[in-house]
Design a protein that fits this description.
Largest sheet: 8 strands, mixed
Number of strands: 15
Shape: globular
Radius of gyration: 17 Å
Strand order of the largest sheet: 9-10-11-8-12-15-14-13
Helix content: 10-25%
Number of helices: 4
Low-confidence stretches: none
Amino acid sequence: MISDLTMARKFYGQLFGWEFEERDGRLRCTIGGREVSGIGERTGPDTAAVWTTYFAVPDLDATLNAIAGAGGRIFRPATGVGEDCRFAVVADPGGAVFGLWQAGARIGAEVTDEPGALVWNECFTADFAAAEAFYTGIFGYEPADLSAPGFSYTALTLGGEAVGGLAELPPDVPGEVPAHWVTYFAVADADASTDLVRELGGSVLNPPFDSPDGRLAAVTDNQGVSFCLVGPRGS
């Protein structure tokens, strides 16, 4: 969700090579005709400008009932988009906001794990144990502990495949920082892409650094929306 679709087209089109189809104030973002993501206009001043992680669900209504029963909140109730899909926006008990997507004619992202496409989603939370219980209970994920001394981390797996992660907010993070999901996009060259972010009017929150999972950088777009880039190590 964002304020200016024209600015978004310029930024993400040049950064990721996306092409766009506009429908009713929303952008369908594609690479080679395959859907990567969507960008919509903010519905009001109280609507955050943010990338939202969506979970695919087979039964939206049942999932909403389960989330409400587990202490989550419903920000946007089930909404239909023609024959494309039904979706909702919710929060876990710690306040991390995410979306639910029941596919119709559109399954959501048709391409992942390649440059310009979504590669990872990660939730940072102060109450790590409660978040792990919530996501494994609601979605049936199996946790895979990847914690290190002083840092709690769990990969959420489905059928043995890691599909997202839960990380404990470090103790030095200010208490007013809420639990939140972070969106990661793959790039061919993390350093070059970070330089391009600056050229396009975005900003760099954390310069590129090598990690076991690739070369990472945290950035914002030209409207202040944060996300992360992941490239090959040494890129």
